[in-house]
Write a structure and sequence with these properties.
about 40% helix, Wheat Germ Agglutinin (Isolectin 2), domain 1, Ribosomal Protein S8, Chain: A, domain 1, 3 domains, homodimer, 10 helices, Hypothetical Oxidoreductase Yiak, Chain: A, domain 1, three-stranded antiparallel β-sheet, 12 strands, globular, alpha+beta
Chain lengths: ~350, ~350
């Protein structure tokens, strides 16, 4: 099924409204999910809608949260998301970071008691639109084993760094700190394909190419895959995300992070509240005039785009470029939904009394 | 040769004094190099001393720099290092970040017109000593090819995140954003050993295990090694370091970064001044009380240290732990110098009229 952006957006808003979200929150949450679908990151868009609803049904997502600042300095804050949708809590926190940056040059917000916040890039882009550099990260359900371990202690813990350019689109680094994101495994599972060595290990810590190995106590590997190729660096990055998002805010960290899937219960010995995010914004003109920065970033982009490549048909890809191409294409031609997702969404619509997708 | 910390420190200070550095700068620069040797990171310590001197001889390092702030907001600043030693310029910049954080919660400094700053961890630790979270990164001579390219366009561009713990030592993530740091290649070269596939490629972009391949137009690979294992993420991290350190400050970036080795001339079409760094500090108590943060970070460390491991003899390593063990050992037992380094240092001593190491 191919659905236009506007129809899918209205549908998604209606689902959030049916959950009891305010109009403002429903519009915002749908905006975050839609940007993911538009950018071609299918794993983080409306495909997750049923997941959010199931957590709400289990009372693990609060549709009417009282999101508030619980600790603050001129440029730092801790936000309690009151168990709300991360899709709403994270933009709230990023707005605080942006306001602090407007006044003092930079702003940094650690968030507790939240839920999955969609793509990190959405929040980074909020800063970019204000000629700021955006930072966004979140911890997540434990699926990744640290180097040398066979225990799932970390999420795929993504980090995003976003920079405004001049004549080119912004540079958006938005990456899981694991060798492969869970979404890539899900695709291989659906297609019945094997995955490359270096993405997952089985319960004993042996490499496996079976994308279902996570279901039998396997684990994802940190970026770098093994010690020799720097998996301790992927572990270090993932640890950084976990500490900034959760140890700093008072959220759950490591293996205590509540699972995103509703059929798994959260640990019964929490060390904090909900999951955690970390968001930041720095004014470019806190360092040099914006036009100077943008013209040098344009020059940087041109130099990398024109780099000599191993295969002349495969140019160097600037971070964020493929997502931008998908965005333009899907705005024009609609968003493709695989049957499983389309059926899931229409089952959901029926249950919540929302008009179905056609 | 094994040299005591105090003797090697005095020797290193004397070399910097002989270059014409002030007493204060010589003490500081030696402190940065010594911490590297103490922490077991031999590639970044006194082994680099002759490299700094050669650049000074070529007038590419200014021994008496007038380091100054050229742009500022309450929590951001750009520093011009006036061509000074990065070993001096970076701590100057980190002090500014710390002062801003004391007043406003956080401080961020981008640096241009500098040189190699030693280990990133030194600068991160400066913040940790003040119960702050430290950030430190730098760009470097181009040795790394972006994903799909066979051109050396990026340095090994390290990033450091440093966190103060309570009863445990601080968590220090300090990592090159390439699959392997250049220092590891140098070790393989000295020992005449091959390196693992995934560290370097030859001029045509084929994997090679020859550690000398960098000398024949080969290139280091980003963390992740190849596209399938996430090398675009290593590239994205390296790009982030390059942009924050140089596009933001007005330093040289990408292939324009001047080489650290004096026998290679800098590009004759610079896009900025010198090399760039980016340093930051955030007060922990800008987010939650320090004792709460530290006790949760201790809990985090304990949980990861006690994780189940694949090989029961190989525990999970907390980032920064091996360096701390080396530190304790070398403070007590002295710092081992391989013959090549010891001879190099004594040749240098002779040339500069400094008392030799014995």
């Amino acid at each position: 099924m191919i659905v236009s952006e506007s129809i899918l957006r209205a549908f998604t808003q209606n689902i959030f409204l049916a959950m009891g979200c305010s109009q403002e929150h429903a519009v915002l949450a749908a905006d975050v999910l839609l940007l993911s679908d538009l950018r071609g990151i299918d794993s983080h868009g409306v495909a997750r809608l049923t997941g959010y609803v199931r957590l709400w049904e289990k009372q693990r997502i609060n549709a009417t949260p009282n999101i508030k600042i619980v600790h603050e300095t001129p440029t730092t804050a801790t936000v309690d998301g009151d168990g709300g949708l991360g899709l709403v809590v994270a933009p709230f926190a990023m707005q605080i970071a942006i306001k602090k940056a407007e006044k003092y040059g930079s702003g940094w917000v650690s968030v507790r008691n939240s839920n999955h916040f969609g793509i990190a890039g959405y929040h980074g882009l909020m800063a970019v639109e204000k000629d700021m550099i955006g930072f966004a990260m979140t911890n997540a359900s434990p699926l990744v084993a640290p180097t040398f371990s066979n225990e799932r202690l970390l999420g795929t813990n993504p980090m995003c760094y976003a920079f405004p350019a001049g004549k080119y689109p912004p540079v958006i680094v938005d990456m899981a700190t694991s060798a492969a994101a869970n979404g890539k495994l899900e695709i291989a599972q659906r297609l019945g394909k094997q995955v490359p060595e270096g993405w997952i290990q089985d319960e004993q810590g042996n490499y496996t190419t079976d994308p279902h190995a996570l279901k039998t106590s396997g684990s994802l590997l940190p970026l770098g895959s093994d010690r020799e190729h720097g998996s301790h660096k992927g572990f270090g990055l993932s640890a950084t995300v976990d500490i900034l998002s959760a140890v700093l805010s008072g959220a759950n960290y490591g293996p205590w992070v509540p699972p995103f899937v509703a059929f798994l219960d959260p640990p019964n010995d929490p060390v904090g509240k909900g999951i955690g995010h970390f968001l930041g914004a720095m004014r470019v003109d806190g360092f040099r005039p914006v036009d100077e920065f943008k013209s040098h970033l344009d020059n940087w982009i041109e130099r990398f785009k024109s780099a000599s490549t191993i295969n002349p048909d495969q140019k160097v890809i600037i971070p964020g470029e493929p997502e931008l191409e998908a965005h333009a294409d899907r705005l024009k031609n609609g968003i493709p939904l695989v049957d499983a997702v389309a059926n899931d969404l229409n089952d959901l619509a029926k249950k919540l009394g929302v008009e179905a997708l056609k």
